[in-house]
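**Backbone geometry record:**
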Amino acid sequence: MKLSNLKRAVYSIIVILTSSVIHASEHKEGAEDKKFDAKEMIMHHVKDAHAFHLFDWNGEPVALELPIILYNNGLTTFSSGEFHHDDSGSHIVEKDGNKYAKLHEKIYQLNAGETELKLNEEHHPENAFMPFDLSITRNVFMMWISVAVLLLVFITSARRYKNKDYQKSLGIAGFVEPLILFVRDEIARPMIGEKRYKRYMPYLLTVFFFIWINNIFGLIPILNGANLSGNIAFTMTLALFTFIITTFSGNKNYWKHIFWMPGVPVPMKIFLMPIELIGIFTKPISLMIRLFANITAGHIIILALMSLIFIFKSIAVAPVSVAFSLFITVIEIVVTAIQAYIFTILSALYFGMATEEEHH
């Protein structure tokens, strides 16, 4: 009997989720299996890395190796595959007269004369230092992919409208048009105002689609943890752009409400000034943490639920773990769009507050 499309989709998600965790649990040392470490497995999938693991073949991992680019008195480049998938710091790569080791996805350069990485009691290197790392990691690679996807989508849509085919807006253009109108009519116009919203539309559209696409990429298990939106540096950069635009867009009325609040007694003005000043910086910080925390938390919950199968070492736990993981995955699919919407609408709100005219 042929399965329906819905059943096939559910089955595929279950298989992918289970196989992803099974792969993380199959680390062997000699002839004996290592004890399953849920924390290590979860952090391995959540944090950034220098390669995409695709699958195992005859017990050996097959991966898309990304380039490592280091700078310390000169530029050094080589493939991350030269570490042979070793993340413990035991495998040493020698390039341009320098020796390098990879420990917890960080590249260390050994001091002159050292032949192996030595760790202290806190498991930190004591005979090596970190050179300036410009490597292409999973997150960087997926950011480039998302930029390419955005360019493809919007250039294709723009060409259709340029050729006046908007009355037959099908395909990509038909999908993008209502989303653009949604950002314009439901976010930009109400939050910024009819007179000023157009100048901020390019940024709001870019942020909305950029975050949304990267959130979707973060849900694809085969990408093995390319979780760009769950990287604090990524969310910090986006929040920084919102902060800069808000600051430079601020008019006289905006700064007056911060430094000398109108309509209140002078003692209260002095009391409110530092609070409002701190608020300038807490707004972008809240944007940064909200996006990072929500996206990362979803991934951690799914991996933690799947880990229960291997922690209890019982197939009886599998139906419960898979069912709850599938439920959280569905929620995460919704959250990908919600978080893009929240970041965009709050950015528009800050722009509207900065450009609002004084009321008489």
Q: What stands out?
A: Residues 24-32 have pLDDT under 50 and may be disordered.
